[in-house]
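Ticket #4471: structure export looks truncated?
Reporter: QA, pipeline team
Priority: medium

Steps to reproduce: submit the single chain below to the structure queue and open the exported record.
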Amino acid sequence: MRTMKKNILFVSILCLSLSSYAQKLTSYVIQYNQSFNGNTPANQNGVLVYANANETYVSSEKDIKGQLLPPYERVLVERSSGNTLLKIAKLKDGSLILTRDSLALSKQKFNPTNETKTILGYPCKKVETSINSNKIEIWYTDKLGVKGAPSELGQDLGLVLEVIRNGNTRTFATKVEKVKTIPEQLKLKGSEKRYDELSYKDLIWKNRFVQLPIFQKERIRFSDDTKSDSILRFANGTVIVKKVKIPKIKASDNVFVQLVEQSKGDAYDRTGSVFIIPANKAQSFLDGMKNGMSTLPKYENGNGKSYQGVVRTATFEPIVELMRFFTPFGVKQFNYLQLKDKVWQDSVLYRQDVSELAGMLSEQEVYVGAFIGNYDKNGHEVSVELTIHPGFEAGSEGNLKKTMSLFTTTNVMEMGGQEYGSMFDKDKGLTLSFRLDQDAKNVQLRYITTGHGGWGNGDEFVPKENRIFLNDTLLFKYTPWRNDCGSYRLSNPASGNFATGLSSSDLSRSNWCPGTVTPPIYIDLGDLKAGDYKLQVQIPQGAPEGTSFSSWNVSGTLLFD
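Actual output as written to the record:
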């Protein structure tokens, strides 16, 4: 009986002790602001750190007020379980994800200094470290009996009151005060899904922008055996097309097109294009794909050939190239062709900013196509996506650029009978008319050009001046040329090697290299009044050599306010 009474007394004393400890557990909230080069922006979302001996939460003022839009993140350090670092994020769909690391803080290394100073009345010590070549200075105090920092860095030093990055970016405490409790909305809810750190970071990253997958590991090859599904296939499978619904794009947003390519059998460098098919006229390029290229408007320069669907007419618009790219010599499929000290790339990534074309994409259903000119039964495999990224200028609206498709001689339907762009063998070159229904300001011609064909004397390997005329007046002249092709050698395992010690993929070319994107140039036309205009492109195209001939892939789209 005495033993039972002693046990009851012990438990009572223990409970009182724990209750007393909980009451004595002091919590603080620390507010932080940030400045750059001595300037502190107004209305910034200040960092808030809640800390006591058991735990530290890193949040923000807008988070506490419920004003943050996902995705956003909190950091939690569990002091009572060995300084375990937890990161918790809320995604756009409302779900919570977390990652946990019990070793992260112990891996942080700092160099102590002898410098001290007082911040908000607290004596502070200084340590330094370097992260990704950035010099970081951290000031902390150990006089409050709690640990915390405005990020995960320095969480085990003490209470960090100032962080200086590269001498110009400063995060500094503005207030330290006691609080009764840590806000309940910061606590874990038990519904979080746990991920490893890499997957966690990837989920947050992809939640920050809009991804529009268009093609996923689709084959572009020359074959009669082309399956029918939501993807349309033309020209014996060398062109794939899909209808895509595009969300609203703001003027401040950034829009990118991305393509990943691997050879599945074709060893050669080929012309490729990602394009959209305008459908604002009575007839579209898609009509020609379905009904035969001979049904499209024909352009003639007097050389006896007809060029189908390459220029704008009153009833037709040609395709608009989002991105012109060139496959390398057999990446992936031919990586077994070993050379000493050469480690071949597994694939080629092409990525280009196309924000200037957002006006023809925003809130539209458009047909997006991809083309690689090849006659190989196994061909190439591609994945294509559009990504839309919020602009850096928050709240910036403005108007998207207006667009007008003028010409495209890239014969994406080559294997469906579309003629090569060889109309430049006559002085007429490429000539068309277009009409502006109203005055246009800040007009630019978005111009892409690449020369092709021939061997040593063909236009692929000989610089040729491009001249552009507006209403018979020379507007612009330019000699497109790339002399950096050797930079992409590791994407070209099947490239031929010459007795000179050069590889074929090393050779300079008319504005392209095997394994690269050819970006557009932007030609200023100024302000144009409403009315009719004539535009002409002249290039001194080389003469045929035996069975080899030269041609030019040029495309032009007007951009204006």
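Status: closed, not a bug. The export was complete when the record was re-opened. Leaving a note from the reviewer for reference: The chain has two domains: 24-204, 209-560.
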